[in-house]
Design a protein that fits this description.
The chain has about 290 residues and is α/β, with parallel strands linked by helices. The chain has ten helices and nine strands. The strands form two sheets. It has a seven-stranded parallel β-sheet, sandwiched between helices. α1 runs parallel beside α2, α4 packs parallel to α5 and α5 crosses α10. It is globular and about 50 Å long. About 45% of the residues are buried. The structure holds NADP nicotinamide-adenine-dinucleotide phosphate (NAP).
Length: about 290
Amino acid sequence: MKKSILVVGGTDGIGKAVALGMAAEGYSVTVIGRSRPKGEQVLNLLRTLYPEGSHHFLAADVSRLGSLPPLVAGIQSLGQAYEVILHSADVLKTAREETAEGLEVCIATNFYARVLLNALLVEQGESPPKRVIHVAAAGFPPGKAFRRNFPIPKTASSFRGHGIGQIANDFYGLYCAGQWRSRNVKVNILNPGIVDTDIRRNSSFPKWFMRLEPVIGFLMRPITQTPEQYARIVTAIALGSNPAADSAVLINARGKPITPSRYLLDEQTQQYVVGAAREEINATLHGEVI
Ligand SMILES: NC(=O)c1ccc[n+]([C@@H]2O[C@H](COP(=O)([O-])OP(=O)(O)OC[C@H]3O[C@@H](n4cnc5c(N)ncnc54)[C@H](OP(=O)(O)O)[C@@H]3O)[C@@H](O)[C@H]2O)c1
């Protein structure tokens, strides 16, 4: 059987570019995303360009935590043993938006969904992957207020939820690296720097900011990567051909290790973040699922 990768948030942006990059390396690819038209288009590309792989698309809104156990059953029914799981699903909102389950939508997408999917696929799954990769914003300074803001207050804006979710990925990744070592599962939390995707253009920033966005994009061009350029860095990590990513958890936009701050390495805070996330997830699911 061919090696396979599961790309959560693979219908667009970085996830889509990595999905195509991994298929070019001979992997079978399963893509998850909300949009059926975008998902069908990626699936078409995968099947046309790389017909030797066994490629799939499953439509799902991962911010709805209740939909994740059935999604995992659907993933498992495809019969693939995923060598790599890549989390790239995220949305960027400003004013507070909530999921139908009452969670702030950004942190539900970029953190809680990842924790729950990993619990079901890696910790409770029969054939855990060799590597789990989160595309987030690794190394963003947590600041002293982080712990007061996690779990985020019920009135927090989605912009705050987004940032706190990104930082929580770092604590969680460093915690999992220790927990998953005995199961030979590596974990990397990535900071892509600036990649030219639609995440900001699809966001809900004020009109004045959106008018300025093309100008900001132009000024940032010298430090901006295309999704395909950045996907080469992620693909090297996924294939195990970036030795830095075998020893470091946090990885920067050029594929180099980021030294975690002392605060990020604090085991009590790591445990606190993971414990609080599990409580929030179980409360949302009305049971002890993880
Ligand atoms: N681009 C950058 O400059 C940059 C910088 C720093 C960090 N990052 C991080 O990199 C990651 C990828 O971002 P990107 O720039 O590639 O974003 P993007 O182009 O907007 O892609 C996001 C992907 O996530 C999927 N998605 C969003 N919400 C979902 C949901 N509820 N359920 C399932 N899938 C969902 C989207 O597909 P559907 O619309 O089909 O659901 C899409 O495939 C994010 O974690 C982001 O924070 C990006």
